[in-house]
Specification:
191 residues, mainly alpha, three-stranded antiparallel sheet, 2 helices
Length: 191
């Protein structure tokens, strides 16, 4: 970028008081390769050399200050990012620890569940076995009850038969007593 500087340092004195002296300056503030140097046109520019030297000496200082500020800002951002990274790393580690703890608890619960399932299955098998035994015992009890009832009926029938016939045969009485005793013993065993 070029800028024209219009200046009449001598005012209206000299050979051509109305002549305007111009100087073209390239604006290279951020360019280290070449310093700002005025271009002379029409013999002008010597009066600006002192000003241009101070500007060119200030430019590296400004540039250095700007770079230092940028560097400080980047360092500060880096520190903030490092702090964030450290915090996130801590959070990740805590979450990993929590995850590991929960995984262990889940595994323990799964083991307990499996153990309880096996115990439940064993109890179910025992229950089924006991139910079958109970059903068998109930069937045996029912059979014995039927036999007892039949024997009691038979005993009553024989008793009535003996009484009706009026027989006092000793042998019949003994048989009758044996039947009553065996029927009574069978009944007691079923109970």
């Amino acid at each position: 970028m070029s800028a024209l500087i219009y200046e009449n340092k001598d005012g209206f004195k000299g050979k051509n008081p109305n002549k305007i002296k111009t100087m073209d300056i390239d604006d290279h503030i951020y360019n280290n390769e070449r310093p700002i140097m005025p271009r002379k046109k029409d013999g002008a520019g010597d009066q600006h050399s002192e000003r241009n030297q101070s500007t060119s000496s200030n430019t590296p200082t400004k540039k250095r200050d700007h770079l230092q500020t940028s560097c400080n800002n980047l360092t500060e951002e880096e520190d903030q990012l490092q702090t964030r990274y450290n915090n996130l790393t801590k959070e990740r580690d805590q979450l990993q620890t929590s995850n590991n703890t929960l995984t262990k608890e889940r595994d323990q619960l799964q083991t307990s569940y499996n153990t309880l399932t096996k115990e439940r299955d064993q109890l179910q098998a025992s229950y089924n076995t006991l139910t079958k035994e109970r059903d068998q015992l109930q069937a045996s009890y029912n059979n014995l009850t039927n036999e007892r009832d039949q024997l009691q009926k038979e005993t009553e029938r024989l008793k009535h038969s003996i009484v009706e016939k009026g027989e006092s045969n000793c042998l019949m009485t003994v048989l009758f007593d044996i039947l009553c005793i065996s029927s009574h013993v069978t009944y007691k065993q079923t109970i």
